[in-house]
């Protein structure tokens, strides 16, 4: 049934669009974090994130 197929396609398209928004948001978050100093990351508490932790350790090595 074509109507049913269209409904299912709309649902898939909707979830793909949502996924894209989430990915874009994550990318922007990581870009913002990349511009932060280790101290900023510690203050914000992002330091729990392994990626941020490694970045902070590297940044501290260079200080």
From TrEMBL:
It comes from Taxus chinensis (Chinese yew). This is Uncharacterized protein.
């Amino acid at each position: 049934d074509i109507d049913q197929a269209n409904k299912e396609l709309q649902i898939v398209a909707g979830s793909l669009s949502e996924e894209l928004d989430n990915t874009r948001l994550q990318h922007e978050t990581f870009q913002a974090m990349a511009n932060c100093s280790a101290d900023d990351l510690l203050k914000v508490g992002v330091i729990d994130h392994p990626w941020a932790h490694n970045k902070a350790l590297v940044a501290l090595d260079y200080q």
